[in-house]
């Protein structure tokens, strides 16, 4: 009876281990692209949590944000997490799309305030401001 618990326990264990590795790398790596990539998912999770609780965020944007958060937390992925470099790629794409959708629904300043990481990353993710002229 306990044999069926082994596979889910291993999946959850590997997911938690990969998150811990990302958190350690995000704190220990020198500033640069590798550190930014390692910190991206934890920063996205923090942003999702903050936006989900904010009453100024419309329901549609909250739904998209919660789906993205569940996608990141889910052990089921299109690309398995244990594959180096590209493992978290599907998580990054889903969260990026959800944040871009939310950015069209809420004021840009609200998303920028919820982002805990490097500001240039969220600016690049969101693209140019709607009222700013394209260069």
From TrEMBL:
InterPro entries in alphabetical order: DUF1232 (IPR010652)
Domain of life according to the entry: Bacteria
Statement: the UniProt record of this protein carries the keyword Cell membrane: no
Domain DUF1232, chain residue ranges per copy: 61-97
Keyword Membrane found: yes
Topology versus the membrane: Multi-pass membrane protein
Originating species: Winogradskya consettensis
Cellular location(s): Endomembrane system
Name the UniProt record assigns to this protein: DUF1232 domain-containing protein
Transmembrane segments: 6-26
Assigned keywords, A-Z: Membrane, Transmembrane, Transmembrane helix
A Pfam entry, by short name: DUF1232
């Amino acid at each position: 009876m306990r044999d069926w618990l082994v596979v889910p326990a291993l999946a959850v264990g590997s997911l938690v281990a990969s998150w811990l590795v990302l958190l350690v790398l995000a704190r220990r790596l020198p500033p640069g692209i590798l550190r930014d990539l390692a910190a991206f998912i934890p920063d996205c999770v923090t942003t999702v949590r903050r936006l989900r609780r904010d009453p100024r965020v419309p329901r549609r944007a909250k739904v998209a944000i919660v789906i993205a958060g569940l996608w990141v937390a889910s052990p089921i992925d299109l690309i398995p997490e244990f594959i180096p470099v590209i493992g978290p790629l599907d998580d990054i794409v889903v969260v990026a799309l959800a944040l871009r959708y939310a950015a069209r629904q809420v004021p840009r300043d609200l998303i920028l305030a919820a982002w805990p990481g490097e500001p240039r990353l969220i600016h690049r993710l969101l693209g140019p401001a709607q009222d700013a002229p394209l260069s």
